[in-house]
């Protein structure tokens, strides 16, 4: 029986849930739907405004890119003209350098020719000098044959023990050593041996 009563109560209470709506609830529902519609239109307008602002930003960035491209192109054009002018200047400088090198080549040729002429003159002068030297050397040889003494210089200092003075050579005293060698003391104080 308890179950039956409980079932009846549930049916009665559930019937209240499905009752007709009152004017207040319908009015509030229409207001909420109208508010939702207004909010949706406002959101849509805001989204459209955002889209427009992004389009404007994109157009501005495109304009700046176009201006930078234009600047780059003008810079390239200026650079090309300056490069061309620099290339022309280099060509002119190479022409001038070539002319200068040609002039130096001509001067070096002239110097070589004058050097050849002087060389020929010096050859003749050398030939005459050689003949004069030959004459003097033959005269010296004949003079040295009469005195066949040759000199040999050593780094040995003058003797501490006095050797015997045996004569004179070129105005200097000639000494005879303990083993029979003959020498004199040169201006540096060294022994200069005389070979006979």
Automatic annotation (TrEMBL):
Domain of life: Bacteria
UniProt entry keywords in alphabetical sequence: Signal
Signal peptide range in chain numbering: 1-19
Record has Signal as a keyword: yes
Bias type Basic and acidic residues, positions: 40-55, 68-95, 150-166
Polar residues bias spans: 187-196
This protein's name: Colicin import membrane protein
Organismal lineage: Bacteria, Pseudomonadati, Bacteroidota, Flavobacteriia, Flavobacteriales
